[in-house]
């Protein structure tokens, strides 16, 4: 069996973003392996630990993505493939390029993050499934293989959840609750440096163009009330919400 | 031609469906609008939809899977010749619209706040970077887009249209073994004008009785943080944040919520934010308009009392 994870490198959510020339400027921002992709990587490693075979991580993005791939390798993935491309690429275009490599790898299943923490896109997993002609299970919280051919999975819907059986190969996207990702250990990090990381330069044309990005943070009032006297504080808050904000 | 995929609950159209019709009408210059109702009981729902649209397809494909929805929408695209497809944003629709966009080799604009056209492209505005950045996107036709719920006033009925059944050859794919629905009570989280969210600092599931009472007085929906959902205190459907729901009410009241970035991703666009937290350094206060530094177990009952007084 072969288990494959697709990952992105994104800004650490805690880091401050800035805009330069109408675009997000990521210089100086701490970049990490997307936390939703981390769940995907962890699950792929667990599947391999349980069922044997091989684990592979694939990413499509600029040179700096190598760090995210090394993190996945340090967590325990066997080898990495990096499609190197600069700039913004919409998920449909990404899926086209990734599908080519993944088809050649012929994995048992593919796991990716439920939503990307930079482009807030949820489309990559399902678009990839379409490109491969496979079924998709999105927002997966539980997965179990049933022999070689099928998986049983639990996943979230708009309201509630469902348990499904799906023929493999299939694409899964991650959701919280799936697992608790392991931290890379020092020996893991050392080993990751020697693992295979294959680079394939690609040249792609995005269907979607980003015209302009801005940060429109609402100026907040930051009006603080001391709660030592809870009754007085509660009255003051209710008064402000009613008379000043006029929202109740 | 524009195709709108109309969300429904098996009986009636959802509010989001009428918002999408309104979005399609805003793109009027791209031609007539057709609708498609996918799922179960589609003939009945399509009759309701025909009060808004000149032509509505009914694709009776049974319970939801992403594969079936994408296939049915694609059949409607081929039948109508539509070059733009619009659907409501949501976890399920953002799954099948991605499949559809791939089938159409279309540009995909996810979760748009507003959309317009110059005749050759669709332009859309959306949030990115965990809801922190606002961006304008542009894609040449064909385009598939989803509209974030509660961003457009719902469409009004027009002169009646006709309903046509749509044959769809069903793809193999996912077999649903069990559906686990969650009890829904009170106001819907994504449509509420006031949301009261409880965090781990409430200390116990029992403490949510107070949160529910407060929400009741305010006519608000109850929200929860991931910590609370993980602990099993509240159902997942109430979770606000990156991996939960995104809300944008007039008032978001956060009780004993620390305000982690992943939580902020679901509520930072609220018009007013108020918070109660015993820690003056809690990150939630940085984005709050009003904050009480205090013990939620004392402040919450006092808030309920003060609100009841206001209501009288
Ligand atoms: C990829 C990813 C996705 C995530 N998605 C989400 C998401 O969608 N939604 C989400 O909420 N989280 C999400 N999280 C988790 C998030 O990072 C936080 O862990 C979570 O939001 C914390 O919940 P909390 O504020 O209830 O708990 P805590 O962080 O533990 O905060 C509790 C707060 O209560 C206060 N408090 C304690 N006692 C009292 C008292 N007596 N009176 C007043 N105040 C008190 C404390 O000062 C503290 O600020 C995600 C994390 C990851 C990695
Ligand atoms: N949500 C987004 N959609 C499109 N482009 C983006 C988005 N976020 C960032 N970009 C741009 O993509 C560039 C970063 O590209 P890269 O270094 O390839 O990640 C920056 O110039 C960003 O402004």
From TrEMBL, chain A:
Electron transport among keywords: yes
CDD domains per UniProt: ETF_beta
UniProt domain Electron transfer flavoprotein alpha/beta-subunit N-terminal: residue ranges: 21-208
SUPFAM superfamilies: Adenine nucleotide alpha hydrolases-like
Key words, A-Z: Electron transport, Transport
Protein name: Electron transfer flavoprotein subunit beta
InterPro entries per record: ETF_a/b_N, ETF_b, ETF_beta_N, Rossmann-like_a/b/a_fold
Molecular function terms, GO-annotated: electron transfer activity
Family: Belongs to the ETF beta-subunit/FixA family.
Electron transport found in the keyword field: yes
Pfam families: ETF
From TrEMBL, chain B:
One GO BP: fatty acid beta-oxidation using acyl-CoA dehydrogenase
InterPro entries, alphabetized: DHS-like_NAD/FAD-binding_dom (IPR029035), ETF_a/b_N (IPR014730), ETF_a/FixB (IPR001308), ETF_asu_C (IPR014731), ETF_asu_C_CS (IPR018206), Rossmann-like_a/b/a_fold (IPR014729)
Keywords tagged on the record: Electron transport, FAD, Flavoprotein, Transport
UniProt keyword Transport present: yes
Signal peptide start and end residues: none
GO molecular function terms listed in the Swiss-Prot or TrEMBL record: electron transfer activity; flavin adenine dinucleotide binding
UniProt xrefs under PANTHER family: ELECTRON TRANSFER FLAVOPROTEIN ALPHA, ELECTRON TRANSFER FLAVOPROTEIN SUBUNIT ALPHA, MITOCHONDRIAL
Protein name per UniProt: Electron transfer flavoprotein subunit alpha
Organism of provenance: Meiothermus luteus
Lineage: Bacteria, Thermotogati, Deinococcota, Deinococci, Thermales
């Amino acid at each position: 069996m072969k288990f494959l994870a697709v990952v992105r490198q994104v800004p650490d959510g805690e880091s401050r973003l800035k805009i330069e020339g109408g675009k997000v400027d990521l210089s100086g921002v701490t970049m990490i392996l997307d936390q939703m992709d981390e769940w995907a990587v962890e699950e792929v490693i667990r599947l391999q630990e349980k069922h044997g075979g091989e684990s592979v991580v694939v990413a499509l993005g600029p040179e700096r993505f190598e760090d995210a791939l090394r993190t996945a390798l340090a967590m325990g993935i066997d080898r990495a493939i990096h499609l190197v491309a600069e700039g913004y690429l919409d998920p449909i275009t990404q899926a086209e390029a990734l599908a080519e490599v993944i088809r050649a790898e012929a994995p048992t299943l593919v796991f990716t993050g439920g939503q990307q923490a930079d482009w807030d896109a949820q489309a990559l997993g399902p678009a990839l499934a379409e490109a491969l002609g496979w079924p998709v299970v999105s927002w997966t919280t539980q997965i179990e293989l049933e022999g070689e051919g099928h998986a049983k999975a639990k996943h979230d819907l708009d309201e509630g959840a469902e348990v499904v059986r799906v023929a493999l190969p299939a694409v899964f996207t991650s959701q919280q609750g799936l697992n608790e990702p392991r931290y890379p250990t020092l020996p893991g990090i050392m080993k990751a440096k020697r693992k295979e990381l294959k680079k394939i330069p690609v040249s792609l044309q995005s269907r979607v163009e980003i015209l302009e990005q801005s940060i429109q943070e609402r100026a907040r009032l930051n009006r603080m009330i001391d709660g030592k006297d809870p009754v007085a504080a509660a009255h003051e808050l209710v008064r402000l919400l009613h008379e000043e904000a006029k929202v109740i | 031609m524009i195709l709108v995929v109309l969300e429904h609950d098996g009986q009636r159209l959802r509010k989001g469906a009428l918002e999408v019709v309104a979005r399609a009408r805003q793109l009027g210059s791209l031609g007539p609008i057709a609708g498609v109702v996918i799922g179960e009981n589609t003939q009945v729902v399509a009759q309701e939809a025909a009060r808004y649209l000149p032509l509505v397809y009914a694709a009776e494909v049974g319970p939801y899977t992403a594969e079936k929805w994408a296939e049915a929408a694609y059949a409607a695209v081929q039948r109508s010749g539509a070059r733009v497809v619009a659907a409501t944003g949501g976890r399920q629709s953002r799954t099948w619209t991605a499949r559809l966009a791939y089938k159409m080799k279309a540009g995909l604009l996810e979760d748009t706040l507003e959309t317009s056209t110059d005749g050759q492209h669709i332009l859309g505005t959306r949030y990115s970077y965990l809801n922190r950045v606002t961006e304008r996107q542009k894609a040449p036709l064909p385009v598939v887009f989803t509209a974030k719920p509660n961003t457009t006033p719902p469409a009004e009925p027009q002169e009646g249209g006709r309903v046509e059944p749509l044959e769809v050859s069903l793809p193999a794919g996912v077999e649903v073994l069990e559906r686990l629905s969650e009890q829904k009570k009170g106001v819907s989280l994504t449509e509420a004008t006031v949301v009261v969210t409880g965090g781990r600092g409430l200390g116990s599931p029992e403490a949510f009785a107070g949160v529910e009472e407060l929400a009741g007085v305010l006519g608000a929906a109850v929200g929860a943080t991931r910590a609370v959902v993980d602990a099993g205190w509240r159902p997942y459907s109430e979770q606000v944040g990156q991996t939960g729901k995104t809300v944008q009410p007039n008032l978001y009241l956060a009780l004993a919520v620390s305000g982690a970035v992943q939580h902020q991703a679901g509520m930072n666009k609220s018009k007013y934010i108020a918070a109660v937290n015993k820690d003056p350094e809690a990150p939630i206060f940085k984005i709050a308009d009003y904050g009480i530094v205090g013990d939620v177990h004392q402040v919450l009952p006092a808030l309920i009392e003060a609100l009841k007084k206001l209501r009288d």
